[in-house]
Amino acid sequence: MLNATWLNTFTTLCEVGHFTRTAELLGMTQPGVSQHLHKLASQVGKPLVSKDGKSFTLTPAGEAVLTIGLARRQQERELQDTINSDDPDVGDISLGCSGSFAMWIYPHLLDRMHQAPELVIRVTAAPHMSILTSVLNGEFDLGVVAEPVNHPRLDAIELAREELCLVVPRSLAGQVLDLHLLNELGFVAHPDGYAYADDLFSLNFPKDYKGADRLRVRTFVNQIGQIPIPVAQGLGYTILPKSGVDAFAERQELAIIQLPKQRFHDLWIISRKGRSEIARVAALNDFIGRTATALR
């Protein structure tokens, strides 16, 4: 039998990816984390990680042990669900969604937690396929995705229609911008930005648009909360879902240009079949549904 405490430390380390932050999260010292890792490796009989400076990668044995750690956590959560009373305001619940939706919904979820002091809500920004996989394996109770989902083990409910927005500095509000003027301004690129550009610009500039790889990139950033910053400072334009624009703290420094043809993404909230019958999951599902009407 693997030591439960050591296994929990190792699983947390794999999730966090950093010894110091793992120690802080578990209320331990960094040497204590290393000691648990060493003891677990001794128990298994093989090294679990391969260190490279301050980072590490899992060995095959480490990957196998992590699978057990994640499965044990899921089993414990299911046991806790059975033991605890089915109270909509009590317990642990996890949500996976895009980075822009996470930024937008999180302040609303904090309001929900103020109303329910014993409710713990965990929000993780993740790509579409990761959300699907994590809802299926029970890591996420709920997921918000931008595509319809048809899976025999999932329930999917249409949540809202979210506009894909061309975002420019406030000084350009109300102006008519063509692709030439946008290229002069420069694109604030981000991981989803190229697909968004293909989606929105192909629709509005069918003759001139030659693909995202032909856009003049002014800067690139992969942190969703920082994407609007260079736009607000007049350094370029970007394309974001409306939630990513509305969540920006200096929203007044941005302007949305209304192109002749609007593009919308349908948002869906998904859960594993049967999971939404748990009171707290059903309550949060309903709360997100009511809150997301503001995006329409």
From TrEMBL:
Keyword S-adenosyl-L-methionine among record annotations: no
Keywords of the record: DNA-binding, Transcription, Transcription regulation
Pfam families: HTH_1, LysR_substrate
GO MF, one annotated term: transcription cis-regulatory region binding
Coiled coil: none
Keyword Kinase: no
Domain of life: Bacteria
Residue ranges constituting the HTH lysR-type domain according to the UniProt record: 2-59
Gene3D superfamilies referenced in this protein's UniProt entry, alphabetically: Periplasmic binding protein-like II (3.40.190.10), Winged helix-like DNA-binding domain superfamily/Winged helix DNA-binding domain (1.10.10.10)
Entry's family note: Belongs to the LysR transcriptional regulatory family.
Name under which the protein is recorded: LysR family transcriptional regulator
